[in-house]
Amino acid sequence: MCASITTDISNYGARGMGDPSHTMKALTWQGKNSVKVVDTARPRIIDQGDVILRVTGSTICGSDLHLFHEAIEDLEKDDILGHEFCGIVDTVGPAVKKVKVGERAVASFQIACGDCYYCKKKLSSMCERTNSSEHASQLYGRRTAGMFGYSHFTGGFAGGQAEYVRVPYGDVNLLKLPDDVPDEKGLYLSDVLGTSWNAVVDTGVEKGDTVAIWGGGPVGQMAAEFSFFHGAKRVILIDGGLGKWRLEHVKKILPKLETIEYTNLPKGETVTSTLKKMCDGRGPDVAIECAAGEYTKGWAHYFERLLGMETDTSELLNEMITSVRGFGRCGVTGVYTGYCNHFNIGSMMETGVHLAGNGQAPVQKYWHDLLKCIQEERIQPLHMVTHRFKLEDMDKVYELYNRREPGVQKIFVQTKFSAPPSPGAPALTKL
Ligand SMILES: NC(=O)c1ccc[n+]([C@@H]2O[C@H](COP(=O)([O-])OP(=O)(O)OC[C@H]3O[C@@H](n4cnc5c(N)ncnc54)[C@H](O)[C@@H]3O)[C@@H](O)[C@H]2O)c1
Ligand SMILES: [Zn+2]
Ligand SMILES: [Zn+2]
């Protein structure tokens, strides 16, 4: 099916799709491991349902690192990145009915039409009308919805690490933020909150479960918190290397959390043997992957990826499959882009392990309920937010996040339109 909106406008200055008489600041992709803040044309209404949002908050996600590393294909120089953002409605197209100029709103990272087969099932991340990438269809047999700031593989939409952004189907893809939810809490409904929630419910975490989570970044942290929320008895978080500080960081917030530093195991022990020992010799009930397929561990996969023999490592998947108990459940939320070698399908088949892709999370399925949970203080987005930076410093933020700078977990990026920090949110750090 073809897209019902104009796709592949990843920088409004290109193809004359913007308003060159008004410029704005935006973070652009320049090549592998290279991003730059530039002045470029501001967006304008292109399709009837478009909304132009004046951005007051954005951030960086582990998924942006996959773009930074060029682990995701179909990027073009000058693409504007960023898929988590909130702001104030600046302009609305003629077909926009619900959203009003001046309202505060958060955007979902996926662009949905609200009306197709998948949108009717609330699977907004699989919308059939917002991504026209042939490459995606060929590789996956179907394609995801369009996504903001996430390469031409997902529609080529300019993202929200910018002062303004075009939001197609604004009535569908913007959620109004009430006055009692400041940007520093509401912003994360774009992605990380819905993603972590989806990881937990889609993998089927139940009361009394023991859950092991690979990756202690913001997604893994909130998946740990939401596992407890859904009744898990024990949660074991696994990280290591440059990310090892995250284990202590998350444990401070969740004292019941147990941890494994995978780069500091006793000689002869593996993640799987350690998990077996911690869980009655049998293993956890549930495993959730919140790291990514580009993070190889051993030399074999390092070289196989380097030589293009696989796009993703199977090492973490195999650890999950062999660690959980028989008929255990494994969910993959960390990004995998294509193929992997040496996948232990035997363990999965013979011992009844259920392995599920959690998908690009259909955040719109959850965002109304999660907003209510924030208002009732039943979930705490600020638990993961450690820093506030300026959009002008965003190129430096990529470097810092990429090297997993100790203490920098989830960040809030302000623009010249942002309100001062709200109570409990971090103060500005100048870089
Ligand atoms: N499915 C979705 O809808 C969706 C949405 C958002 C993010 N994501 C993905 O989720 C993943 C996590 O996101 P994030 O923002 O927390 O990223 P992040 O990069 O900040 O965190 C990833 C963590 O994984 C750790 N890690 C690396 N190799 C590991 C290994 N072998 N074992 C255990 N831990 C390991 C890293 O040290 C790091 O702390 C990323 O792949 C991101 O792209 C998916
Ligand atoms: Zn993300
Ligand atoms: Zn749709």
From TrEMBL:
Swiss-Prot/TrEMBL cofactor(s): Zn(2+)
Organism phylogeny: Eukaryota, Fungi, Dikarya, Ascomycota, Pezizomycotina
Coiled-coil intervals, chain numbering: none
Organism expressing this protein natively: Penicillium cinerascens
Name the UniProt record assigns to this protein: Alcohol dehydrogenase-like N-terminal domain-containing protein
Keywords: Metal-binding, Oxidoreductase, Zinc
GO terms of molecular function: oxidoreductase activity; zinc ion binding
SUPFAM superfamilies recorded: GroES-like (SSF50129), NAD(P)-binding Rossmann-fold domains (SSF51735)
UniProt cross-references to InterPro entries, sorted A to Z: ADH-like_N (IPR013154), ADH_Zn_CS (IPR002328), GroES-like_sf (IPR011032), NAD(P)-bd_dom_sf (IPR036291)
Matching Gene3D superfamilies: Medium-chain alcohol dehydrogenases, catalytic domain, NAD(P)-binding Rossmann-like Domain
Domain Alcohol dehydrogenase-like N-terminal, first and last residues per copy: 48-178
